[in-house]
Amino acid sequence: MTDADTFVPSGEGAEAPASSTTPSSPDAEVSPGGTESSAFIAPVAMENDPDALFPGDRGILDSEVRRVLVRILQRRFLSAENSPAEWKLLLEHQQMIESRLNDLFVRLVVDHARGVAYKEQVRSDEIDVPILLKDEAYSRAETLVLVYLRTVFQRETTAGTASARVDVEEVEQTVLTYFAETDGTRASQQRAVRTAIARLDREGIIEEESEGRYRIGPLIEVVLSAETLRELQLWLEEQTADAARSAGGDVAASILDERTRDAGSSREGGVAASALDEHTQDAEAAGDREVAASGPFEGDPR
Predict the structure, then answer these.
(1) Within 13 Å of residue 7, how many CA atoms lie on the same side as its CB?
(2) What is the value of pTM for the model shown?
(3) Residue 65 to residues 23, 78, 88, 151, 288, Cα–Cα distance (Å)
(4) How large a percentage of the chain has pLDDT more than 70?
(5) What are the φ and ψ backbone dihedral angles of 16, each rounded to 5 degrees?
(6) Any long-range contacts for 90-96 (C-beta under 8 Å, 24+ apart)?
(7) Domain residue limits, the chain
(8) What pairs with residue 29 in β-bridges?
């Protein structure tokens, strides 16, 4: 019997040609037993699909790569030094991870020289881009600490020192000279400096090696480029000079000059297209943001 003579049930006690009552899909195939099978893949239960990580999983990335993608979204940065396994996976699957981030209008920046990767919000005047990441500026105290740390780091690395380190008392003593009497009591200023140091430690810009002793990491060059550092130093010099003149002396200005003058003429340590440079706050902003640099990395989703 040929395929054209094959009959299928069509109601009780009746038979009809398959070609007239049950048209076949163009993609249908006839199995050796004479039954049709669809070319489309039927849904597979999770227990029968070893690649699915959860019910309804439509993702195509391996579990480890997904975790790196989530870490990039969760954290402000990913460090090769602190997370070597995740850094290795990032480099191996960089194109795929970038593709997933680009789908969210987020750009991945990988700085191989410093061993750090971070994300930045895509912004465009040509298309309407939904903003996923918030751009959080540093406070005034945090920016003052950053300026001092960046100055020390640049001075030490230019001199050939392998690592730059500072003591909390050293940072506090220097940064407090930038505060005015109107910035609160000495105790509140000290608390602000200590809080700033704690935040920078959490973000990995500095690392506490022993109690009160910190190593300055290369991330400081990403947070404050040489150009941004010079802009902030000029602003601080102006503010300190005004304060010195109003007090009838130039002691505060000389302190700032001594500790920061060489930084502006040293080697360019920043990243030209850093996400931070794009969003560094203007010096004339008011309140806590009056000398605030942009937050280190656009990180936390809104």
Answers:
(1) 7
(2) 0.61
(3) 45, 14, 10, 37, 39
(4) 63
(5) -140, 155
(6) 90/117, 93/61, 93/65, 93/68, 96/61, 96/65
(7) 63-121, 140-275
(8) 37
Top mean pLDDT of 94-108, 113-127, 280-294 is at 94-108
Quote the pLDDT of residue 247.
Answer: 56
Strand-by-strand arrangement of the 78-79 sheet: 78-79, 116-121, 106-111
**List of residues 6+ apart from 31 with CB closer than 8 A:** 37
Rg (alpha carbons) of the chain, rounded to whole number:
31
Output the CA torsion 74→50→36→1 (10° steps).
Answer: 160
Q: What pLDDT, on a 0 to 100 scale, did the predictor assign at position 234?
A: 87
Residue in the block written with tokens 């795929």: 96
Closest by CA position to 275, among listed 200, 203, 224 = 224
Q: Which of 33, 7, 35 is nearest to 20 (CA)?
A: 7
Output the CA torsion 94→136→276→176 (10° steps).
-130
Q: How many residues does the chain have?
A: 302
Strand bridging mode 7-9 / 15-17: antiparallel
